[in-house]
Amino acid sequence: MSPTMDVHTQELSSAIQKLMSNGVNNLSVQDRYIVPPHERPQMCHVSYSESIPVIDLKDLDGPNRTTLVHQIRRACEEDGFFQIVNHGVPENVMKSMMDIAKEFYEMPVEDRACLYSEDEKQPVRVFISLNLSKDKVLNWVDYLTHPCHPLEEVIGSWPQKPAAYRDIAGKYARELRALILRLLAAISEALGLDSDYLNKILGKHSQVMNINYYPSCPNPDLTVGLPNHSDGNALTVLMQSDVSGLQVFRNGKWVAVEPIENAFVVNLGDQLQVVSNGRFRSVEHRAVTNMQSARISIPTFYSPSDDAFIAPSTSMVNEQQPALYRGYKMEEYVATFWKHELKGKSLLDRFKI
């Protein structure tokens, strides 16, 4: 065996040992996955009787647009999270994407491990922690991540296995981008701005898709799939599998976001809280584990491009409501993100005036 092959074999073996989806790591809760007592999910205190708003988008482009924009405004102001139905993404496109995501994690672990990287600058990779050098406890999850825009420029870098992945995920990414642009227009109008306002300030736009895999866990009370955090992007659109696990901090308590068939979960990211000068909220949420079933979620993160300048809209600032945040280039926010743990809203707080 050549030295190069030997190094590659060692790297592959190391990656396999780290992946939560290797069929071994999820059989017992090792110390590196045990969350400190004050950060554990305390499932007995989670509310299943409350829910985030559900908005039917059927008439978003029709005569009832004003009514729907009002519903979106209220959800953005009060919850920062809502589910959408009749959103225009074909059911077969959603089902095919979820099926190929499951197939990805059912492949031989070697086929995923070859994509493993701890380099956050690597755009296409499988990894186990958002910030391995900073996280004191590992999350009960594996991630696949890759960019989706401009699609024709990036699709050639996506995983080659499963064989149908690029075709299926490419169709899904196109549909999600179209949906997100419609949502951004409605959210702009909900702020009293021109419908293309958010589209313009995001610069060249960034669209990234994750496939998050949360295996079943023998002791969910000790672990988290993702700790409580707000998203650092502009808008997230999430497709859940039929297994519950997403929870949102709402009205002082954690609320379970139960999956709705053919629905998406939409949540505002920190960038929209800044642009709205705090009128719209990015809200803390988390993912928890369970003993019975693996869970897959597929978030699409829509963000400003690195060179975009983000600041409170001038129409959101006046003598009674001064600017709450300083302006910055998105690249500064991203650099700050990678220097710190994923925890609460502490990152956004660093940009307050």
What does this structure look like?
The structure is a single chain. An eight-stranded mixed sheet has the order 1-2-10-7-12-5-4-3. The chain is 29% helix and 19% strand. The longest helix has 26 residues, at 165-190. A hairpin with a 2-residue loop joins strand 8 (246-250) and strand 9 (253-256). Helix 2 (65-78) packs across helix 6 (165-190) and helix 3 crosses helix 6 (165-190). With 353 residues, the protein is of the alpha+beta class. The mean pLDDT is 94. 39% of the residues are buried.
Which features does this protein show?
29% helix; alpha+beta; 353 residues; four-stranded antiparallel beta sheet; 10 helices; eight-stranded mixed beta sheet; globular
Summarize, please:
This protein is α+β, with helices and mostly antiparallel strands and 353 residues long.
- What summary fits the major beta sheet? 8 strands, mixed
Strand and helix order: HEHEHHEEHHHEEEEEEHEEEEHH
Q: How would you describe the shape?
A: globular
Q: Report the radius of gyration as a whole number of Å.
A: 20 Å
Low-confidence stretches: none
